[in-house]
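Practice problem: Pseudouridine synthase
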Amino acid sequence: MRIDKYISGCGYASRKDVKKLIKQGLVFIDGEVCKKPEEQTDENSIVEVDGERLIYREFVYLMLNKPQGCVSAVYDKKYPVVTEFVPEEYAHFEVYPVGRLDIDTEGLLILTNDGQFAHEMTSPKKDVYKRYFAVLDKPMEEKDVEIFAGGMEFKEFTAKSAKLEITENPNEVYIEIAEGKFHQVKRMCERVGKTVTYLKRVAIGNLKLDKSLEKGEVRELTKDELDMLYKK
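Answer key — structure tokens:
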């Protein structure tokens, strides 16, 4: 790729500023001074700017512990958006949320700039189950477990078989679904006569929310975590 795109992709400088660095003779490719922004390089090249070696990454994968009060979008006229929590060092990647969580739902949200990865994680055909912790106004019963397992018909979609796990406190449950349609967990609970008063996503596939992440905090996914997601 072009050297100006490579350097901007590393987050070192904008493509406009890269031209200035090149004019100053501060950019080197494999030990040779770079003279033009359109010069070509690749991932095997050694690129240095002002003596610092750069490492290019095309994609980035972030874990956010989403708080309530923000929407799963990159822009909204009315509410704060989840990308506002992304540290400045990742700004040039222009990440976006993988799937969505309702404005009043907390928990695990992945942000990335990898479209294929996002599709793999959100397509109902891939059966990547999302696990939620829910607090209800009324206790769940054992008969509800079978109803969830049988799937549910809604006007807009058919919910696949879902796993309902009742804790020692029947007003607190874990629910696993494959689709993640609009208000799906809440609507499934309403179907059996319960109202969700608190909802938090705790896992996507084999990836669990990092308990050390405070609400609004972000960190990169590790290679092992990415491998777990793809295996799922």
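Discussion: The domain at 58-126+210-232 is CATH 3.30.70.580 (Alpha-Beta Plaits). Students who identified this feature from the tokens alone can consider the problem solved.
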